[in-house]
Amino acid sequence: MQSNDARLLLHALVPTLAIGAIAVAVSAVVAGGTGAIGAVIGTALVVLVMGAGLVVLQSTARNHPQLFQMMGLLLYTVQILAVLVFLLAFKDTTLFDTKAFAFTLLGTTLVWIAAQTRGHMKAKTLYVDPDPDSAEAKKAETAGSPT
Q1: CA proximity to 21, closest of 102, 133, 104, 80
Q2: Cα–Cα distance between 28 and 31 in angstroms, integer?
């Protein structure tokens, strides 16, 4: 993983974990131990699904840039389906409080998306790879010409 990819992952992960910790504390107070477990599972699901998606998307952008947009759309569809499968598998569970899980899942997902968007906006990503040979040649051509 390149350093800018790791930085983007970190910029999304830290606020998500912070909100997840707050959700665990609030859920523990409101719904007890099962609420805290639900909040932990909700936070972990968001981190796993969104984190894996970001890693796959960055890998695709680096190795196959022509597939980036298609892979992004496919990836978001797979992420939604993965969460749906999890929800269907645990819809009648008593292992954790489902309301705490749902609110934590929603909140941490929104925080992840906002933090990832902010990270992309602040990243100084070049759209075109500069050709160092042509830049030096142009500099050499204009060096002797009067301005």
Answers
A1: 104
A2: 6
